[in-house]
Amino acid sequence: AQTVTQSQPEMSVQEAETVTLSCTYDTSENNYYLFWYKQPPSRQMILVIRQEAYKQQNATENRFSVNFQKAAKSFSLKISDSQLGDTAMYFCAFMPWGHTGTASKLTFGTGTRLQVTL
Amino acid sequence: DGGITQSPKYLFRKEGQNVTLSCEQNLNHDAMYWYRQDPGQGLRLIYYSQIVNDFQKGDIAEGYSVSREKKESFPLTVTSAQKNPTAFYLCASSDQGWRSGYTFGSGTRLTVV
Q1: Interval A11-38 mean pLDDT
Q2: Burial class (CB in 10 A: 0-12, 13-18, 19+), B29
Q3: Taking every pair of C-alpha atoms in chain A, what is the biggest distance, in angstroms?
Q4: What is the pLDDT of residue A102?
């Protein structure tokens, strides 16, 4: 079974600054996908960024980027130029790849609550 | 616009009652999922379904039941056997290209009164 650990329950960052959220995972799989989801106060889950484990290049989506270290089983999220709208709960998630069928289960971490301040 | 609709947004249940949470998607996705969210515990998988008339238990299926009679619909019933049903429930779906992750509904907050 896979486990996902987010060791920072809460973080705070000032507007326009950079913040990094940590995520580690444990798996025996070699091929998998990793995701960061954002859950703002509306509680709608929004996909922020995803990373394929077979790709060495770190994924980037505008102000969001990841530092994927496969050997260390680490998948941190960096938010640059933080904005007030980034205030949310952030979840790291793991999905194994290559299983039969169309459903593949996402395993989530416990989340990091990020507060962006003025 | 395509998406997932969960209803109701808020639901109150008396102890001993069964309640059903609705989840409908018009994304033509094959797979659908139900997650439960509690403070400090992240999201935990209750049930999932890959195709119509097929579903599998997740990590915390006890006290819950589902059906998948139509591709678009995946209702979740919280039975009286669920000891602590007060939580936020999220429905999600994914297509054959599940590598892109899930699409989530806006959730249902269930409270036992």
Answers
A1: 95
A2: buried
A3: 48
A4: 54
Interface test with B, best of A104, A107, A112, A113 (most B CBs within 10 A): A104
From chain A, the residues in CB contact with B96 under 8 A are 102
Question: Which of A37, A47, A102 is facing B30, going by the closest CB pair?
Answer: A102
The 3-state secondary structure of chain B, one letter per residue: CCCEEEECCEEEECCCCCEEEEEEECCCCCEEEEEEEECCCEEEEEEEECCCCCCEECCCCCCEEECCCECCECCEEECCCCCCCCEEEEEEEECCCHHHCCEECCCEEEEEC
Higher pLDDT, A81 or B112: A81
Summarised one tens digit per residue, pLDDT across range B36-86 is 999 888 899 999 998 899 999 999 999 999 999 999 999 999 998 888 999
